[in-house]
Write a structure and sequence with these properties.
With 231 residues, this protein is mainly alpha-helical. The chain has helices at 2-13, 18-36, 57-60, 68-89, 91-115, 127-140, 156-172, 176-182, 185-189, 202-208, 213-230; strands spanning 46-47, 122-123, 145-148, 152-155. The protein has one domain (16-199): Up-down Bundle (Rhomboid-like fold). It is globular and about 45 Å long.
Length: 231
């Protein structure tokens, strides 16, 4: 078991993108699970009607992928864009950013379902948080040109605008409020840019608030040593 744990840690941290790799791994595991037992997706995808029974779905809906082509392209996109962003920001800041984007987008869609549209709102998959991740990546790499899917040259900011537009119009076809809610995660990006509270990183923000990771990890290590002595 310890060998498996060490190998898993090595795999996750090898390219300095443990959060991205962890999300890809979880996405693949849940996809296989849904193929074996389709009803399980209801415990992970967000549904505005069943949210109060399954409140965790506000955060787990990115893992609800049942279409093979969608998840393949989403995971490739997450690997390239998300991995690049994680290397730039660091895993703690990137992980906190992904958490906030997922929560804010899910909450915005839920509010539409509860107060504006009298129909159930169902959201699932990585593409909603990927819209904000791509926007954040483009903010850092503004002006950089890349080959879209290895074929089409395009600037980073145009790629972000195109993805945001595709996401917006996908949901706008149902109702304008859903279109706005679908791209609400982009607002979170500006908490991590310019004069935003997390512009210098999540860890720096915690330090400014008086919270020390060093003290926390030190206490954890001392406790772990005491447990080993008892054993």
């Amino acid at each position: 078991m310890r060998k498996f744990t060490r190998e898993l840690q090595y795999f996750l941290y090898k390219d300095f993108i443990p959060v991205t790799k962890g999300l890809i791994l979880l996405g693949g595991i849940f996809f296989i699970l849904f193929q074996l037992y389709r009803p399980a997706i209801g415990l992970v995808a967000f549904n505005s009607l069943t949210f109060f029974r399954y409140p965790w779905t506000m955060l787990t809906y990115p893992l609800a992928n049942s279409d093979v082509l969608s998840i393949i392209f989403a995971l490739l996109w997450l690997w390239f864009i998300g991995g690049s962003l994680e290397r730039s920001w660091g895993s703690q800041t990137y992980g906190f950013f992904f958490f906030l984007v997922t929560l804010v987008t899910g909450l915005a869609m839920a509010l539409v379902g509860w107060f504006i549209l009298p129909i159930p709102i169902l959201i699932a998959g990585f593409w909603l948080p990927l819209t904000a991740i791509t926007w954040a990546w483009a903010e850092i790499n503004r002006g950089q040109e890349l080959l879209f899917w290895g074929l089409i040259p395009i600037k980073a900011e145009w790629l972000a605008w195109i993805q945001a537009a595709l996401t917006f119009f996908t949901y706008f076809r149902r109702h304008w409020s859903l279109g706005l809610a679908s791209i609400s995660g982009i607002a979170v990006v500006y908490l991590f840019r310019g004069n935003g509270p997390f512009a210098h990183g999540f860890r720096y923000w915690l330090w400014r608030k008086g919270f020390s990771f060093k003290g926390l990890t030190g206490r954890f290590r001392r406790k772990k040593r005491r447990l080993r002595v008892v054993e």
